[in-house]
Structures are given as C-alpha cells and as structure tokens.
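Weekly sync, protein design subgroup
Attendees: M.S., D.O., the rotation student, P.L. (late)

Item 1: inverse folding check
M.S. brought a backbone from last month's batch and wanted to see whether the design step gives back something sensible before we order anything. D.O. pointed out we never logged the input encoding, so this time it goes straight into the notes. Structure tokens as presented (518 positions):
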C-alpha cells in the first residue's frame, strides 16, 4: 500500500478516498494510444440515438393573414425593384454601345417548353369571330361571282386558307426559335424575299394596274406578304450574328478613329439598307401601303435591337443622304414614271382632303362615294347595330366590303358595342404579345417577337384609322377578319413565330418564381 493509504487508514478513513469522502478523479485513458491511424479509421465509434423527450401538446395560435400578405407584397416589390434596375442597365448599355446578347445576368433561366395556352385561345377566338363576320358581310359579293354563285364563296376559301395558316402557325410555334438563328437560315430567307420580289416585277400577275401577285396553279400568291415575315427573321438573325462576331473580337476597324463609322455600317447601314432594297421593289409594284408597313416593322425591329445612339446618328445620316439623292434623281430624270405609277396615291390624298372640307380638291362626288358610304355605314349602326346579315351598305354601296371596309360593315351590323368588343380583343392579343417581348431572353428572340407583333398591330391601326377617316385610304386589310388568302397565311405564320418565342425563347416570370418560393 502507498504512504497515502497508510495515512488514511491511520486517520480512520478508507483507502483511495479524499478527505471529503469522494473518490479522486481519474485521468481519462486514451484507448487510441499506440494505435495506427488506419486501425483507428476502421473502428467507427458507435453513437446511440438519444432518447426523444416526451411530446408536449402545444396550442398554436392561428397565423394572421395580413402578415403573410405583407410578406408576399414585400417580395413582389423587391422583384419590381430588380426589374427596374435591369431596365436601367439595359438603357445604359444602349447609350454606351455595349452589346446585349445574353440572358439576364443574375438568373440562369432554363428554356420554357410549354405552349402559351392563353395566346392560342385568343387566336382561336379572333379567327372564329372573323370567319363569322366575313360570312355575314360577304354574302352578296359571293352571289356575284361567276364560277360559284353562293353566299359561302368567300367563307369556303377563307376556311381553306385559315386551316393551312393554322398548320403553318403551329409548325412554326413548335420549332425552337434558335433554329432560325443560323446564318444559313436567315440568309436564305432574305435571298428568297429579294428573288421573289424581283420575280414578281418581271413575271408577275397584274390586276388593276398593279403587279403584286404570282400565279401558282389556280391561286394567286402575294409575295409582299411573305416578305414581311421573312425580313423580320433576317434582320434578327443578322443582328445576333453581328453581336456574336463583336464578342469574338472581330468587326474592328484598322484605324481606331474610324471605329464609329465601322460600327454604324455593320449595326445600321447594312441591315437597314438591305431592308430598304426589298421595300423599293415593293414600292415599284406599286404597293405603297405594304411599303409603309415594312418600313414601320423594320424601324421597330431596329429600335428594339440594342443599337447604340452613335450608330443610329451616323447610319441615319448616310441612309438619309442616299434616299434624298435617289428621290432627286427620280423626279429629275423620270417624273412621268412617278405621276403614272403613283397617281392613285395622289388621288387618295385629294379624296381625303375633299372629305374634310377642302373645296379646292380636284375630285368628284363619285370619287368620294366609297369613303362617304363606308363612313355612313359606320355611323348608322347606333349602339347595338342592325343585326348580323342585315347591313344595307354591303349591297354595292361599298365596293369590296369583305376586304378593306369590312370594319364599317361589321359596326353597322353590331353597333358601337360590337366595334369596341373587336378592338378590345385586339388589345388583349397585343398585351399578350408585348409580355412575350418583355420576357425575351436574347436580342434575336426580342426582335422576332417585336417584328411579328408590329406586323399585326400596324395593320389593325391603319385599317380602323381609314374607316374612321383619320388617315387617307390605304387598302390595308383587317388581320384575321378581312378576306385574303396570302395575308391570312402569313399573319398566322407571324403569330406562330411569336408563340415560338414564347415557348423556347423567353425566361419565366420572376413573379411566378416569388410565388413558388424559389
């Protein structure tokens, strides 16, 4: 025994105890001393799961709905602030001439693979509505056809073109929009547009002094309607290619001082000049209304393509100088051509002035009969109209009521309420298309959606403006309502391109992400 144990026994205490009667603390033994790390790694410590405490019944207070609503509102406000910040960065990049060809930086969005059902339903509503209106308006004109004297003549042909157009629409919508962003695709489409316009001028079918059609079998094909859509794809593809080349360090001038003019050439002069070349061939058909539509569509695509202000300035100066020089040469050396081929344009301006109280206009009452009768039909419908099929103006008081002046006959039959209903449907369609433009994830997708929306929107505005005598007569049809085979085909194709962007070229809504909690 140790001396400490003998001392404790002598003092009457048990050996191994402290004076206070407790056992002394022993030094912990290291079981891993002298063992190799591999042996320590093989022997995993066994952990026992701690016993769960007994469950207690806790009474939860009901959550206040206003608190949850306030949290959602706060998240939505944060989302809107982020959107505003992105738009500010976008405008700054345009001013500084920085290329924008990438998705939004802070989010890596997956591709959307679902069809836009509300847009498809809206299309079906307007198309079916237009077929009903066309049947109601075109009955007397159908009886006057020499081959098929039937009130359903125009309806049957429009149904055929609408069915084919819907096939083209949904085919385009299911093709990924990136497929069209290939140089071989958009360059071939531009070449097809230019060749078809040249062929129309050389060997086209002439009607009422205008050579705008190509005969294919028993049908006539209006090439300018196709050019509206193909030119949008070509412009978008070219702009995307320029941005890709610039991101790779190409398209640089040898002299840094001439870089601005080089950028203006590739950004503005070359694409806009190519579009103007197609527009010139449309103008000499002559087809001035389509010329204005193509010019507006090209302007909208260019405006929404992210081109810098300096490129706009220098490119605009160059294009304006060439256009002015061309007009001066034309009026100087061949003024007879202008007076002969564009006499109908000057006549329409004179009719417009005469209908607005200008007694000096050189027009007769027979010249203004068409416009006056269409305007009278527009006002004779009252609030609720005279009823579908009961129009009087469609019985040769207004010529071609199934085309240019279909809105006047429709308002006569359905009244102010029916006219506002149709305008409201167009506004809903344009709002849906505008949302697709705002959600586009690249310059190419944004230009496609912008151009195709502009094709439909400008034709609606021009047609209704002519009916209300706001502008001179243009001969523009009402989309999805007026009769027209080629127009119906490519209007539906343009809408299909918007659906394609919505399906495979947009980012999901951020508000939806907030609602889902992602």
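Designed sequence read out in the meeting:
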């Amino acid at each position: 025994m140790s001396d400490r144990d003998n001392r404790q026994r002598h003092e009457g205490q048990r050996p191994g105890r402290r004076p206070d009667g407790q056992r002394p603390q022993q030094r912990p033994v290291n079981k891993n001393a002298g063992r190799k790390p591999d042996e320590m790694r093989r022997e995993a410590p066994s952990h026992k799961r701690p016993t769960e405490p007994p469950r207690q019944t806790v009474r939860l207070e009901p959550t206040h709905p206003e608190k949850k609503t306030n949290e959602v509102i706060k998240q939505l406000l944060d989302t809107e602030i982020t959107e505003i910040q992105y738009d500010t960065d976008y405008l700054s990049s345009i001013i500084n001439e920085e290329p924008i060809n990438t998705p939004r930086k802070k989010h890596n969005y997956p591709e959307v693979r679902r069809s836009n059902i509300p847009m498809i339903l809206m299309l079906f509503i307007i198309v079916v509505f237009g077929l009903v209106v066309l049947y109601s308006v075109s009955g007397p004109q159908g009886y006057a056809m020499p081959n098929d004297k039937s009130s359903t003549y125009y309806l049957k042909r429009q149904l055929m073109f609408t069915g084919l157009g819907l096939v083209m629409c949904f085919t385009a919508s299911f093709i990924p929009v990136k497929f069209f962003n290939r140089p071989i695709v958009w360059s071939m489409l531009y070449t097809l547009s230019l060749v078809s316009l040249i062929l129309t001028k050389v060997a086209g079918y002439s009607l009422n002094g205008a050579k705008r059609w190509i005969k294919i079998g028993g049908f006539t094909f209006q090439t300018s309607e196709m050019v509206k859509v193909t030119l949008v794809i070509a412009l978008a593809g070219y702009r995307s290619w320029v941005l890709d080349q610039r991101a790779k360090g190409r398209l640089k001038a040898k002299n840094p001082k001439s870089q601005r003019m080089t950028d203006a050439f590739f950004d503005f002069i070359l694409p806009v000049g190519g579009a103007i070349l197609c527009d010139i061939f449309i103008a000499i058909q002559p087809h001035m209304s389509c010329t204005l539509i193509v010019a507006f569509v090209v302007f909208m695509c260019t405006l929404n393509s992210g081109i810098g202000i300096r490129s706009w300035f220098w490119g605009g100066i160059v294009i304006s100088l060439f256009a002015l020089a061309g007009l001066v040469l034309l009026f100087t050396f061949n003024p007879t051509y202008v007076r002969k081929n564009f006499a109908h344009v000057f006549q329409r301006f004179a009719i417009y002035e005469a209908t607005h109280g200008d007694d000096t206009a050189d027009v007769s009452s027979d010249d203004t009969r068409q416009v006056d009768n269409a305007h009278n039909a527009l006002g004779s419908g009252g609030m609720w109209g005279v009823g579908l099929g009961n129009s009087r103006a469609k019985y040769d008081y207004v010529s071609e009521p199934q085309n240019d002046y279909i809105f006047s006959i429709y308002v006569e039959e359905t009244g102010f309420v029916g006219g506002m209903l149709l305008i409201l449907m167009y506004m809903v369609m344009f709002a849906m298309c505008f949302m697709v433009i705002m959600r586009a994830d690249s310059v190419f997708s944004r230009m496609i959606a912008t151009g195709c929306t502009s094709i439909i929107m400008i034709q609606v505005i021009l047609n209704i403006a002519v009916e209300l005598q706001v502008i001179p007569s243009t001969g523009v049809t009402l989309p999805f309502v007026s009769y027209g085979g080629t127009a119906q085909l490519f209007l539906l194709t343009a809408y299909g391109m918007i659906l394609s962007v919505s399906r495979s070229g947009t980012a999901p809504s951020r508000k939806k992400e907030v609602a889902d909690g992602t």
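Discussion: Residues 44-50, 55-61, 94-110, 513-518 have pLDDT under 50 and may be disordered. The beta strands are 205-207, 210-216, 219-222.
Action: P.L. to compare against the previous round before Friday.
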